[in-house]
């Protein structure tokens, strides 16, 4: 029996899910990430990649037909020809345009303002393009071979083809999925010298190649296993949910808050941190906020979250209004790299404080959807909830009060399941290489 493997590299850990041809889960493995310095992240990712695959039962591994990887959006590296990073990775939430020690920061923002169209998502301070421009000033470009996203880099260690990406990961680099090419403004003199570092972009699910002989032998992967272009973790969660019609949406309540709404209209408004991914004949519009579960975890243990949530009356609005962030900077629905966290006044009662946090994050989610509709997106008709926060019933009632549409739990809430579906539903007719 053929199997299909999805690997999800999120913000707090990685997960593998194998499915069969009937879309049924055959095995699931999760590995949490320990806290390590940013320069050690690539080593951790690579070790986790091999560990996840190795833990898949040999009876499934030996019959894998295809494998795909998702990663966090705009987590990027610049590498030499061996794939070794020339600089520590820049993470998904690094607002490179707001980093204090970068005196040339304003220059980068001004360059993008002069290069890219108004409203394009590359104007975000955390965009991949902003990070490429900054990295180009930090490393010796004579040593640089490729600028890659997290999912691209991990795939390279399996198939050996450096510099191939998908158009979901590459959107914030500037790739236009409607044109299926980089836009003409990439010929600008500022970007022209960097074009050789840009990844070749293909549709998510496209077969890139097969395991290298060494990887096939070391991990027990069939030499014929198709290694496919991946996607971002939030789009993988959308694919896993089963949402497929305009008006259906997915909120991912993980370390951060990410919303994706399937719309008939494409919307790109960098002013609000809103961008659109191509998904079939429609557009997946939305954005990612820096608020979310990581803020809750800063103040409460998992046991406290469960116990205190049970003591909250979710039908009663909280009098405490916050903007919960771990550090300054927000991406969506307010795009402000300098936005300060608001976590005061803090009541003495931890239950009341948690109530205020849950209420405030729900309000940010509602503002995000309202912003999308205001700009022309198809109004949400129902919202699936993915991520760890989906298990909190108190939070679900609070969110329903703010959102006013049915909230559903997907049968398969894990992003890795969506990536396994991507591997199963390959879009390419023939291989790239």
Sketch the major β-sheet.
6 strands, mixed
Q: Calculate the mean pLDDT score and round it.
A: 92
Radius of gyration: 21 Å
Distance between the termini: 26 Å
Annotation field: number of helices: 12
Largest beta sheet: what is the strand line-up? 3-2-1-4-10-9
Beta strand count: 16
Which structural class best describes the helix and strand composition?
alpha/beta
Task: State the helical fraction.
Answer: 25-40%
Task: Give an overview in words.
The chain is α/β, with parallel strands linked by helices and 433 residues long. It is 29% helix and 20% strand. It contains twelve helices and 16 strands. Strand 1 (3-9) and strand 2 (13-20) form a beta hairpin.
Ordered list of secondary-structure elements with their pairings:
Elements: E1 3-9, E2 13-20, E3 25-32, H1 41-55, H2 58-61, E4 64-71, E5 76-79, H3 105-115, H4 128-136, E6 146-149, H5 150-159, E7 164-166, E8 200-202, E9 207-209, H6 213-219, E10 226-232, H7 233-241, E11 248-253, E12 257-263, E13 275-279, E14 282-289, H8 293-299, H9 302-309, H10 350-374, E15 382-386, H11 393-403, E16 407-408, H12 415-424
Parallel strand pairs: 1-4, 4-10, 7-8, 11-15, 15-16
Antiparallel strand pairs: 1-2, 2-3, 5-6, 9-10, 11-12, 12-14, 13-14
Briefly characterize the structure.
By secondary structure, this protein is of the alpha/beta class.
Using brief descriptors, characterize the structure shown.
single chain; 433 residues; alpha/beta; six-stranded mixed sheet; 12 helices; 16 strands; 29% helix; 20% strand; disordered C terminus; transferase; FGGY_C
